[in-house]
Each structure stands twice: as C-alpha cells, then as structure tokens.
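User: I'm putting together a teaching handout on how multi-component assemblies are represented. Below are the sequence lines for each component of a complex, exactly as they appear in our records. Could you produce the 3D structure of the whole assembly as structure tokens, so the students can see both representations side by side? Please keep the chain order the same as the input.
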Amino acid sequence: MIKYVWLVPLFPLVGFTINGLFGVRYIKNRAHWIAVPALGLAWLTAILVFIDVLHGHTGEVTLWDWIVTPDVHVRVAFWVDQLTAVMLMVVTTLSFFIHVYSIGYMGHDPGYPRYFTYLNMFVFFMLILVLGSSYLLLFVGWEGVGLCSYLLIGFWYERESAWKAGMKAFITNRVGDAFFVIGMFILWYYLGSLDFKEVFEKAHMLSPEIVTIATLCLFMGATGKSAQIPLYVWLPDAMEGPTPVSALIHAATMVTSGVYMVARSNVLYNMAPFSLEVVAVIGCLTAFFAGTIGTSQFDLKRVLAYSTVSQLGYMFLGCGVGAYAAGVFHLMTHAFFKGLLFLSAGSVMHAMSDVLDMRLMGNLKKYMPITAATFIVGGLALSGIPPFAGFWSKDEILHHTFETGHYFLWFLGTLAAGITAYYTFRAIFMTFFGKERIPEEIKHHLHESPKVMTIPLIVLAIGSATVGFFGLKSSSGESFFAGFLAPVMHHVHGTEHVVEHAAEHAVHVPASVLIAISVAVGLTGILIAYLVHMKRFIDPEKLVKKTWMIHRVLYRKYYVDELYFALFINRTLDLAFVSWKFDQFIIDGIVNGASYLTRFLAWVTRYCTEPFVVDGAVNGASYVVDLTARVLRRLQTGVVSNYMLFVAMGLFGLFSIYVFARFF
Amino acid sequence: MIPLSHILIYSFLMFAIGLFGALARRNVFIVLMGIELMLNAVNIAFVGFSSHLGNIAGQIMPIFVITVAAGEAAVGLAIVVAIFRNRLTVNIDSFNLLKW
Amino acid sequence: MGSAQVFFYIFAGLSLLFSLLVVTRRNPVHSAICLIITFFFMAGVFVLLKAELLAAVQVLVYAGGVVGLMLYVIMLVKADEASQVKQSLGQMVVAAFVALLLFLQLGAVAYIYFSGKGAGAAVAEAIRYGGNTEGIGALLYTKYLFPFEVASVLLLAAMVGAIVLAKNRLER
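Assistant: Of course. Below is the structure of the complete assembly, with chains in the same order as your input.
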C-alpha cells in the first residue's frame, strides 16, 4: 500500500481544486460534499498505509524528477516510515473529524465553499510536509501550510483584527522561514543534496560547528512555525480565524510541523548537542512562560492558544533531551485533546452567539451537557491526569528530562504542568460551572450543538482517553510508541555517548516517584482552581487587585507584542517612510528637475540660440555668398578685351610655371 | 648666320606687340589685326627653328597657320558685320551682353 | 656679320616698327596699310631664312587676301569715319604691362637657352628635295596629307560660316 501513498494527498488536492474552481459559483452550500469525502478517502488510505508500516514495511515512492541539472538533482518523492505513519494518522484523523464538525459550525457562513477550499488545501500541503522525502519538499509543504494558515486566519477578512492577525502570522512565520532556508542552504552546500536519505547518510562528514549552525537555523524556522520563543506571538492572534481552523491548524497539525522536523532530523541534532540544549531550554521556557500568561486571560480561545504554545514547548523539550519519540508521542496526544478542547470551545461559541468572554459565561453544563463533558475530558488529558492521554506523554517527557540530568528544566516543566492544570480548570469552572453570568439576549439561543458537531467531539474525547495507552511500557522497558518509532531514531556513531553520559551521572530516582510527583502537581493545580474559582476561598477579584502588578504583566502578555512593535515593526515602517520620502523628494525631484531643465533648454533654444546662432549662421552664410558673388561678379564685364587680358595673364602664369619647372 | 636667339626675340617682340594691340584697342578691326600679328610672330618662330634645325617640316606648320588665320579672319569679319547690323558700332566695349 | 644678318636686322626692325604703327593708329585703314607693309617685310625675313614658298604665300594670302578682306569690311562698316572711340588709359597700361612681361619672360628664355645657335642649315635640306617649294610640297602631300585635307574642310566650313553669318537676314 505504500506504493500508493501518493493517493493520500491526492484526494484533498482534487477536493480543493474542485471547490476552488467551482465552489463559489456552482457548489455553494454543498461544498462539504466534495471536501469531506475527499478527507474520508484520504483517511482510509492513510489507515491502509499505516497498517502496512505496522508490518514493518518502509519505503520511498518517487513521483517525478523536478529539477535536473548537473549540480542539482531534486526529485518529488514521498518517504514512508514509522514517523511518517504516525504523522499521517494524526493529520488525516483530526482533519477528517474537524471537516465533519465544520459542516455544522460554518453552515451559515457565506464563505462556505471558500472555507472548505482552504481547508482541503491546507491538508494537502500538510501531507506534503510530512510525506516529503527531502527538506525541499518539506519546505514546500511548510510554506503551503503557512499560506493556508494566513488565508484561514484572515477568513473573515472584512474584520480589521482578522486580517491584521493573518498578516502577523505570515510575517512572523516568514522570519522563521528565512532561517530555515539558510539552514537548508548550509546543508545543501556541504552535502550536495537535501534528500533525507542522503543527508542523514553523509551527515557524519560534517564538522560539529557546521551541523550546529545548520540545526539552529532549522530550529529558528521551527520556532516560527511551532510558536516558540521568540516567534510565538502570532498564535494567540490567530484565534481570529474560525474555531475549527484553530483546532486543526493551530493545535493539531501545522504547529506541530516544527516538532516533526526536529524529530525527522534527529541524526543532525544528535551530532550537535549544543543545538539540542537550545531546543530543550527554549521549549521548557516557552512552556512555562506561555502557561503563566494563560492564567490571566478571559477569552476562552486565548487560554487554549497559550496552552498550545505551552504544550508545544513540552514537545520541543522532549526532543531536546534526546527523547524524540516522547516528543512525537506528546504531539499525537496533544492533537487529540487540544483539538477536542478547541472544538468544544467552538461549540460553546456557537451556542453563545460568538461570545468568548468567560466572564459572561457560567453554568453552561446545564445547557450543553455533551460539550461540557467532552471539554472536561480534554481538560483532564491536558492536565496530565491518568488514565487520560496527556498524562502518558507529558510524563514520559518529564521522565526523560530528569533522566538526562536536566534537573532545572525538569523542575520548570513540572511547575508548568501544575500551572497548566490550574488555568485549564479555571477555564472549565468559569465556563461550565458556578454562577450564571450570561446576558439575556444570548440565553435565548443557548442550546446544545447539532450532532454533526457533537459526534466529532465524542470521537475525539474517546481518543483523548485512549491513545495514551500506546505509552505503556513493553517488556523492553520502552513504551510501545517509542519502540515503534525506534527505527527512525538512529544514533549516529559517536553521539550516543552524549545521551548515555548524561544518563550515567543522573541521580537515580525511580520512575514511580516522578510519576507521583507529576500527578500530584496536576491535582494540586486543579484543586487550587477549584478553591479559587468555585469555592471562592480566595476571591479571584480580590486576588487580582492585590497582585495587580503581576496580573497586569501576565494579562498584557509580558508586553512582548509592544516590544516587538517598538523594536521591529515600527522601525520597518520608519524605513518605509524614509524610502517613501526619498522617492518623493529625491527621485521625483530628479525627474521633475530633468523636465524643468528640458523646458528651460527649450526656452533658451527658442529665444536665444535660434534667433542669434542658428539664424545667424544661416544668414551669415548667405551674406558671405552674397559678398563673394558681388565681388566676383565684377569679373564678368562682358567686355571681350578684358577676357583676353585674363587669357594673356593666364598664359604668362602658365609659362612661368613651365620655366620654373624646366630650368630650375 | 642669323643667330636663332635674335630671330626668336624678333618673334616674341612681334607677339608682344600683337598682344598689346589685341588687348588695348577698342576698335574690333584693330583687335583682329593684333591677332593676325600674333599668328605671324609664331610663323617667324617656326621658320627660325626650321632653318636652325635644318628640317623642312618646320615650314609646313606656318602654311597651316596661314590657312587657319585666313579662315578665322573671314569668319571673324562676318561676325563683325552681323554685329554691326544690330549695334551700329565697332567698339568692342559695347559688345557686352555677357555682362552680369 | 654677314650680309644676311644685316638685312635681317633691317627687315625685322622695320617690320616691328610698322607693326607698332598697326596697333597705335586711330584710323583702322591706316592700321591695315601698315599691316600690309609689316607682312611684306616679314616675307623678306622668310626669304632670308630660305623659306621662299612661305614668303610668297604670306604675301599672297595674308597681305593680299586677309588684309584686303579686312579693308572691305572696314569700308562696309564705315569704321574709318567712326573711329573716334575713346581709349581707356588704364586698359592700355595694363595690356602694355602684360605684353611686356610676357615678352621679357620669353625673351629671357630665348636668350639664355638659344644663344649661340645659328640658323641656316636648311639649305642642304632643300637641295636634297630640289628646292624649297618642292620640299614643302613633297612633305605636304605625303607625310602631312591628313592635316592638309582637314585644312581644306576647315576652309570650307569657314566659308560657309562666313556667308551664313554675314547674310542679309531680310531676304528669306
């Protein structure tokens, strides 16, 4: 079946082409008839491919030669191995159910066909990204999903906040992409190829410094795409887009491409321990940093957005300490529960007439029991409470962090887990429990969402509850998941010692203790949220007033956006302004000046040179001729003897010449 | 023997006199006579050379010169007659239709 | 100085004198008469130079024919009475100057180049032919036949031309 893996991206490609060309005019409200089956077929094909990989088959499927020159040979080919299979399943499963959900959510939107076009296009590019057999093809997908993200964030483009958010996302991504491209150039320059197979085989030829630089550049691209420090700023604003988009792109799939890329490049990162440290540190800091912001937000989707940034940090932390499989595992579980949380939030929004402010909600469980139940399931998974999925993956990451001797990072990560649990349940309590603060006009429309929306919620809830069990440890001491991915995570000769070295000097704490600590931390977070927001032991408003400075910093997201504006954006606008003025005065000045000069020269020519010089020359010539003629005319006397005289004179002259010639 | 140089000087002197007459006089007949004198001067030169070089061919040329001179005198005088009919004068200064 | 030379000087000198008179007389008839006399003396010089035929032709054709023709025309035009044409002094001076210049130049050449050469060897040549006339005739009708014929045509043309030019236009 791997031979036919190209069918998987083909279905969404066909879907988006048909919807794109004919959707607005002809298909309109029936666009889902094209888009959803396309995804369904892609999902089924992906399952078949996955089964094939489960049996241990891997392979490369070449489609065609793209660039063929003596120096460069690039093929369009798909590489299928265990990592690809995992990503394939995550992407297609989440995409399919979110497409189904969208039928209900976007049903009344005038841009219905456009929405499904973009959504299918996104899935197509995401599949290219995960299937690509070279960095170049990965980058094609990378750029493509960035484009779709922009299109979908700014879906309601008439709204100023929406298109601004789209621009912010695209430009921030671009900064990261620039670094990614540099990284690719470095690899290509030294290795002559961007194919994964060739790069990973020849990687040992590179010096550690080159690999470090290349991997850091690639990681910078990942910070843009996967919303880490410093390029995470676009993700919270991306909530302007439709909620299913937030679920699919900004929770489950696109933002995980950075993690996928790092996992795929494990050979390179293993050669550059410095880069790995950078990855781990940034991931952990982001996880903590974003978590703290999430505690202060009132917009339900904002809380989830910062939560996503935070969880992505965990994934990078996992990769950074060498536990790539753990990072990818968390990617998978996060896709399920974060996707679920977003869809539930969308359900809430749908019922609340698009109001997202949690201060206007409360006790929604009465009106939307299914949504509330699924949201709580997602919340438990996010908080890392067993037996839900999040526990297994988050714990594995923290375990490996501790095992490799990164004690401070482990501490920070565990703390962040507690904070995660806190803000998650703060959101749950504020939204679904407690006093009803809902305004009257909204209450009238308050109802549970239609089945087309609730069924995907239930499916994802089941997933959030169960996929964690892949993390169970098999007899070899490794989780099933890690064992499955092991063939992909090669250890390059000579770099194994880095990981093992750290492991040797580690304090040996039994795994059970660590598990207990993380569960305890999670439960503590929930408890604090319960006490503060439900039981009101500490009144949240009083708390905010007392710690207003800290709260202000958190609420304003550490003023990072303001900082970026001042440092970069306004300086760029200044440069644009200067260029504009330059163009206006100097360039236009030169052009206008040239025209003035020409007109002046014309005036001079007309009034000065022409009457005096040109006419002078012409008249002068005629005057000279006249003068000469007047003089020479006198020769023609008409008197014959004069002529004879001239003849005689001429004769004399000729004879003189002869005499001189002959006798001298 | 008559020195050749004397003959030539005689010839050239007559030529000069004839030239003067042709250039300086107003009367068309005198002009024609001056031309005849010039031609004759040439004859003398020819004959002088012929005598000096001992070649009779030098006397053939004067025969032709005389012939041509006669013909030219005839035509010239016919022209004078024709002009006289119109202008009733023989002052060559008045034959000035070629004046600008 | 041989007698030939003396006679040469006499004849040459007189012909020059009379040629001067030719160009200086006011009355064209006087000029014509002087011209005839000049020709006669020139014929004398020819004889001295052993060109007897030429002398005879000179007297017959030139002195007789040409000058005679001139006299007829002078009479026809009544130029003898109307010979009061104003001479322009300037013209005379310039012409005299130019003539003098030319004579000096030619004379100088003649004197420098040709001095010391004698003239008179034609006698032997003429004896060969049996006389001057026979000699000229012999050459004229053999070697110079073509120019001779051309000269005839020329005379014919001159004749016709003269008649056409001088014809009275009124008779048609």
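A couple of points students might notice: The domain at 3-122 of chain C is CATH 1.20.120.1200 (Four Helix Bundle (Hemerythrin (Met), subunit A)). DSSP finds seven helices and no strands in chain C.
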